[in-house]
Design a protein that fits this description.
Blueprint: E1 3-8, H1 10-14, H2 27-30, H3 33-36, H4 39-44, H5 46-62, H6 67-75, E2 80-85, H7 91-95, E3 100-102, E4 105-112, E5 119-121, E6 139-143, H8 153-161, E7 165-169, E8 190-194, E9 208-210, H9 214-228
Parallel strand pairs: 1-2, 1-7, 2-3, 7-8, 8-9
Antiparallel strand pairs: 4-5, 4-6
Bound molecules: adenosine-5-diphosphoribose.
Length: 231
């Protein structure tokens, strides 16, 4: 069965009411990345970091998947679909997508600050100082912070290499190594990018740029792929 691979970013969830990072009014306008999304910030003020992710976890739990998430789940009825997301919300899963790889972790998960293998699903619950894992160590958000390694990167790259059709939705493609995934797609396959703006691609030459929001552009592209198939 033909394999469709989708790379999504914050723009995918913008239509569900979740702020992106670098657009006007984005998250990084209100917060200092180094204070709330880095190990140094955690070591300096863990409560501030926990509060930042508690707010985002609450917002994500109150958001609903949009027509873009739903359209991607619909394509799974006809093709093998792998979603690689930079997003930490669970809107793809809640829309029905089955193969979702979270490059930057998940808001619903927490892990021991000492043993990254001790991971727990905390749903929409807030995390507090004193919440510990079974090893007695403080629980931290299971999120990849700036400057930390991206454990799923190798797996993600091998998935992109297998794509018969590649779609990028709602990412500025400025954060590495995730942005480098576009280089792993095979030459000659169909490649689409859905974004109201023109992201940081060294060339749009091999890409079809659908200048649209995820909620508007994804359903139409899904219909086209289901009707015409993947060559
Ligand atoms: N539909 C589709 N795309 C949209 C929409 C929308 N409604 N609104 C905005 N966009 C696009 C913007 O034009 C931009 O290209 O989504 C992209 C958002 O870019 P960023 O805010 O940089 O988000 P992202 O690319 O996901 O950031 C990557 O940076 O901060 C880290 O770990 C964080 O995973 C995140 C990573």
């Amino acid at each position: 069965m033909k394999h469709l691979v989708v790379l999504t970013g914050a723009g995918m969830s913008a239509d569900s009411g979740l702020a992106t990072f670098r657009d006007a009014g984005g998250l990084w306008e209100g917060y200092d990345i180094n204070e709330v999304a880095s190990i140094d910030g955690w070591n300096r003020n863990p409560e501030k970091v926990l509060e930042f992710y508690n707010l985002r976890r609450k917002q994500a739990s109150e958001a609903e998947p949009n027509e873009g998430h739903i359209a991607l789940a619909r394509i799974e009825e006809s093709f093998n679909v792998s979603i690689i997301t930079q997003n930490v919300d669970d809107l793809h899963e809640r829309a029905g997508s089955k193969n979702v790889l979270h490059l930057h972790g998940e808001l619903r998960k927490a892990r021991s600050i000492k043993n990254s293998k001790l991971v727990y699903d905390i749903g929409s619950k807030p995390l507090k100082l004193g919440d510990t894992a079974e090893d007695g160590e403080q629980l931290r958000p299971d999120i990849v912070w700036f400057g930390e390694p991206v454990p799923m990167m190798e797996k993600a790259a091998s998935i992109v290499e297998q794509a018969d059709l590649f779609i990028v939705i709602g990412t500025s493609l400025v954060v590495y190594p995730a942005a480098g995934l576009v280089d792993y797609s095979q030459p000659g396959i169909s490649k689409y990018i859905i974004d109201p703006a023109t992201p940081e691609l060294y060339t749009l030459q091999d890409w079809v740029h659908i200048k649209s929001t995820a909620a508007e552009g994804t359903p139409d592209l899904a219909d086209q792929i289901i009707k015409d198939g993947i060559d």
